[in-house]
Amino acid sequence: MFFSLQTIALVASTGLLATQGASALAVEERSTSLCNQPNYGASGVPWKSNSTPGSFCSSKKPSNNRFWNQIPYADSYDKVKCSGSSRNRYNVCGSGNKRTNLPKKCNPPHKFPWGYKAPTTSSAAPAKTSAVASSAAAPAQSSAATSSASSAAGAVSSAAASSASSAAASDASSAAASPAVSSAAAVSADPSPVAASSAAASPSASAVIDPLSYPVCETTYQVQYQNYTRVAANGVWMGLTMGAATQDASYMTYTLSTSVDDCLAACDKIEGCVFVNTYYDVNEEENYLPKHTDGVLTCAMFSQCVSTDKNDNWGGQDDPNTIVNSNGYCKSSACGAPA
What we know:
alpha+beta; Apple domain-containing protein; two-stranded antiparallel sheet; signal; 29% helix; single chain
């Protein structure tokens, strides 16, 4: 079979154009990547009501309305740069982002030598049902579990079981709280790391335990705090105990996800990101907006691990929103992060 010179030239030119098109597409992808946009595509900071997230970093969006359609899926962020010749310039292209030291005034939850482990972070969305029944049932469940554990085990295992059951009840109560009563639930249940530590410690282990020796880890991140709350100093909720999220100058970007693991994986792909604050930003009047959608986590990312002194976004400053289940994760060598 013979082909004319014109046919051969046409086939060759078609292949060349296809190659050039693929190359141009790759260049365009790098130029429009989230890593080349201010705050990785996020508009403003998450503690302002008119801000928008830069991306969605889970596999499936919970809606296809026009607001969700405007938010792109995560595109590996700085890892897009890793295909170029300058890949060695970026930590994220090699062993990952370097960890930072835990900040001062940080008392993270930690494991204990006798086996007690602080409750793991729940990624369940806050339910809309009334929290009155839940908060009333939680103490009864907790006391029943504690009494049965006390009769079946010795002093050490009893202290561990009591702490674990009370912490689990606290998590259940706060997870079931609706935005309208989240402040009341937060007052009745104190999920702070300090309370968890003091409840679990036995008299024989009254000495201070180094949290770096017994950390609670979520992949390579140390859990710095769980369901953090504080009394609001101003705004709509002034004087009430509310969930509180981080505001800090080391802010980099924020994305949305449906799980904590997805938030942390996204931070791993952003050069310099070492701290993630996850929480539900609840506003029933605007739950059509992505960041207020039921079951969707806000993942605020920072270049430094921030102490709870900076957790002063309790919602209600410029709109009637509430912060629910605010958790902090600091990339730590104690959890296997690169030094």
